[in-house]
Structure formats: C-alpha cells, structure tokens
Design a protein that fits this description.
Structural class: mainly beta
Number of helices: 1
Largest sheet: 7 strands, antiparallel
Number of strands: 20
Helix content: under 10%
Length: 350
C-alpha cells in the first residue's frame, strides 16, 4: 500500500518538476539589473566625514572652528562653496539634519565672495530636544557660499542635502488651492496648514484640535500620551484624525484611543527609504535595528462613527513602548455627515 502511494506521488511530481524547468528560463529573462539612480544635481554632505563626493556645482565644503571669548562661546562653521552655472543651478534646496537642542540650534546664512551677507541668518529648529531636519530654499543669485554654524564642536550637525531645483507648472482647483510650492525629493507630505475656523464641505466638518507642537516623553511632558477634547452636537458617520509626528519609530507607530476605547495603530506615511532623515540604531532587547525619522511625518487614522458620541469626546494619541521622545503638531479631525443632514456648524474645543 505504501509503495502504491509513493508511485502515485512520483507520477504527480514528474510533470510539476518539468514545469519548473520550463519556467526557469522565463523567470531569468524577467530579472532586472540594478541601475544606479542618477544624482548629478543632488549631494549628500556628511559633516562627520572629511571626504564627501560632490557634484561639479559644489566646489568644496570647509569646516572652521571659531574660538570663544568672554563675550561669546566658541562655535563650529560648515561652509558650503558653490560654483555658478547660470540657468542650471539658479535655485538650491538645502535640507539640514541636526539635533534640535534648546540653545544650541544651528544658524544658516548666505554670503558672497567679498564677505557681504546676502541671505539673512535663519535659526533652524524649535529646541525640542530631538533629532530633526529643516529645509531652506535658496535663490543662488549673488551667493557664493552658505554657512551653517552651531555652538561648540558642532557635534549636533549630522549633514546636509543639497539639490538643484527647477520650476514646474502645476494646476489646482480654483476653489481648493493649497498646492505645495516645493515638492519633497523623497515624497514626504508638505507641512500641514491648519486654520483657526472649522470648515464645512459636502457634509464634511474639518476642525483643528491643536495647531502647535506637543512634546511627549520629555522633561516638560514625561508621559508618552496627549489628550484632546472636543464637543459634538451629534456623532458623525465616520471620522479621520490627521497629525504630524517628529522622531517617529517607523516600525512602532503611535496608538489612538477614543473615549477610552483603543482604535489601534495610527498609519504613519513613511518617505522613500533613501531619505537621510531615516537613521538606524540598535537598541537593547530588540532583534532588528530601530529606524527613526529625524523630521516630520504625516499620520492618519480612521475612526468609526460608533466610537464618538454627542457631547464631550476625548482623543488620546500615545506612543507606548517607545523610549525616545516624540512630538506632535497640526492635530486635525474630519467628521463625515450625510450632505443633506443638519451638520454642526463647528466643534467646541476646550
């Protein structure tokens, strides 16, 4: 009996094996080569390494240490010198990656060759005490070099991404607008623009719960959670919460609780993995490397209408199991009602 089973299996396997042999050449023909993505107009400048491969439109990068005295502390200046190519590199995006430490934030400025300042000093970051990044769009007319300076040894400056920009035409709805003036090279969403007034459109009510920045897991707020209250005349059919998060662990998203009920993990919209704002580290008791994003990422979470009620509602965004601090900003909620229903004119927020 056993021999009969073995014979039948072998008869079945023979044509399958032949099928794999026939498919193997076709699979081989479909294989793709690994092509280096062109980056002649993009440069990653790593401030921790002396040797950095630069495109022809960047002449060199210099590091200067300035000693302090009784009136001011010492500082470190990274100077990026540019070559001018008219019509080719007229506008440059410079994204600086740094530790956003209170009182030690980097300052960016632009100069011409004879030492006249062309681009006014701009302090980067908000002193949130987390890894961050900030983008500056620089018109290159009259600018020969850009200085990025930080107090002390400048250890909090990781690097800078420089991209040559060009203009592109875009179309947008007359009643909507809001097209971002600058497209992120790695597909990150443009910073949210929140309004002070609630808005109604086709049965949707949109309201800002928190326009500013809320830090979690820091000295000012050691808890890894933030709550937001608002009052509704009637519950919606469905709702959508959106916000932005800084220093997110992209493998461990924040969680959302509504009126004491866990809704689940929030969807974090991650950029292209080539983005230098993604940095990995090894943490104790974790098998895989932990990747955090040193910048702001957009987050969304759908809330079923049954989780909300008429009267006071509370939304809590938490970051459990996350030892590093994070920050939230531009917390906004959308509520969907039937277009012909008596939708509320606005939300009441404390």
């Amino acid at each position: 009996m056993i021999q009969g089973v073995d014979w039948r299996l072998s008869k079945l396997l023979r044509p399958v094996a032949g099928l794999f042999l026939l498919l193997a050449p076709a699979a081989h023909l479909r294989a793709q080569g690994l092509a280096q993505q062109p980056s002649a107009y993009t440069a990653w400048i790593d401030f921790s390494h002396k040797a950095t491969e630069l495109p022809i439109w960047i002449e060199r990068v210099e590091k200067h240490s300035v000693a302090g005295d009784n009136t001011q502390p010492g500082k470190t200046v990274y100077r990026i010198r540019f070559r001018h190519f008219s019509g080719l590199v007229d506008e440059v995006l410079l994204r600086v990656y740094f530790d956003d430490t209170q009182g030690a934030q980097p300052v960016l400025s632009g100069w011409n060759e004879i030492g006249n300042r062309v681009l006014a000093p701009r302090t980067l970051g908000q002193g949130l005490g987390m890894p961050s990044s900030e983008t500056v769009e620089i018109p290159m007319t009259g600018i020969d070099y850009v200085d990025i300076e930080a107090p002390g040894s400048g250890i909090g400056l990781r690097g800078a991404l420089a991209l040559a920009l060009h203009g592109a035409e875009a179309w947008e709805g007359l009643d909507f607008g809001g097209t971002a003036p600058l497209t992120d090279p790695f597909g990150n969403a443009a910073p949210a623009v929140t309004g002070s007034d609630d808005s109604l459109l086709f049965g949707r009510v949109k309201a800002t719960l928190e326009p500013g920045v809320v830090a979690l897991g820091t000295g000012a707020n050691p808890n890894q959670a933030a709550g937001f209250e608002f009052s509704l005349d009637q519950p919606p059919l469905i709702a959508l919460l959106t916000f932005e998060i800084l220093n997110a662990n992209i493998s461990l998203p924040p969680q959302l609780t509504v009126n004491g009920k866990l809704v689940g993990d929030v969807n974090v919209i991650v950029t292209d993995l080539a983005d230098p704002a993604l940095t990995g580290s090894v943490e104790a008791a974790r098998v895989d490397a932990v990747y955090r994003y040193g910048g702001w990422l957009k987050c969304q979470k759908v809330i079923p209408g049954s989780f909300l009620a008429g009267g006071t509602n509370e939304i809590v965004i938490s970051s459990p199991g996350n030892p590093a601090p994070v920050a939230l900003r531009s917390v906004e909620v959308q509520l969907k009602y039937t277009p012909d229903a008596n939708t509320p004119d606005s939300l009441n927020t404390p």
